[in-house]
Known about the structure:
The structure holds two protein chains of two kinds.
Chain A: H1 3-14, H2 24-32, E1 35-39, E2 44-46, E3 55-60, E4 63-68, E5 74-80, E6 85-86, H3 88-93, E7 100-103, E8 107-112, H4 114-123, H5 125-151, H6 154-167, H7 178-185, H8 189-202, E9 205-208, E10 211-214, H9 217-223
Antiparallel strand pairs in A: 1-8, 2-7, 3-6, 3-8, 4-5, 4-7, 9-10
Chain B: E1 8-9, H1 19-23, E2 29-32, E3 35-38, H2 49-53, E4 59-60, E5 64-67
Antiparallel strand pairs in B: 1-4, 2-3
Amino acid sequence: xxxxxxxxxxxxxxxxxxxxxxxxxxxxxxxxxxxxxxxxxxxxxxxxxxxxxxxxxxxxxxxxxxxxxxxxxxxxxxxxxxxxxxxxxxxxxxxxxxxxxxxxxxxxxxxxxxxxxxxxxxxxxxxxxxxxxxxxxxxxxxxxxxxxxxxxxxxxxxxxxxxxxxxxxxxxxxxxxxxxxxxxxxxxxxxxxxxxxxxxxxxxxxxxxxxxxxxxxxxxxxxxxx
Amino acid sequence: xxxxxxxxxxxxxxxxxxxxxxxxxxxxxxxxxxxxxxxxxxxxxxxxxxxxxxxxxxxxxxxxxxxxxxxxxxxxxxx
Lengths: 226, 79
């Protein structure tokens, strides 16, 4: 790994809540012990239930964290872009991977071994605190997802999803497809197309070639019941 | 035209049936080694016909979701 690579990772680490409390020198030392990997689009990074407890950090590209039903339909728990962190649950408790991680585009990722993560947490209480806050944030996000899936129709779920994406562009990284949106909202791509058309007819959004532009925030928030 | 944004064709799922190539109104698609590819991304208008009709769901159009600029100059908005 070159010095430039280490600097890139050290910069990424400074933006990740887990490692933000570390000094620049400590982040550099951490980066020097990280692995660097590249995955092609649709390539599996790891599967659910594997004994694989590294912490992964996305440098570039998009990754989906997904579950498969026994019938083979996919539910996307998280969509992650550059700077996104995944497999922290397994990295912290040493258990099996909780879901599948699959590259959605060409992806470059860094990997920190569980021993390294544990070592940093033991040495820095501020990192332990940041890890707790990140994990509780995930619990809250999963609660919201559960609420959305059980209580709201696709129209509301999609409106909420569009707002979340617009407010954090890193979530969709180099773009998001209707199939991925459908996988995240537990519906079909055809339904997503139909509901997007309905939102466009209402004037809440507009298609501009590869952009989905939110043209009326207030209307979309109202549809999203926010 | 930003040619980075174009239909993505999963070569493993593509059967080379040619339906997308036949239907593309802009002739943006072609075939190489029995698989569909985007030959002319600059002509693609993102009509999504290829994505809709692909029988194996091998084609997907990535979108960028963003707020429109407050004025009518929203078309100039970029990443």
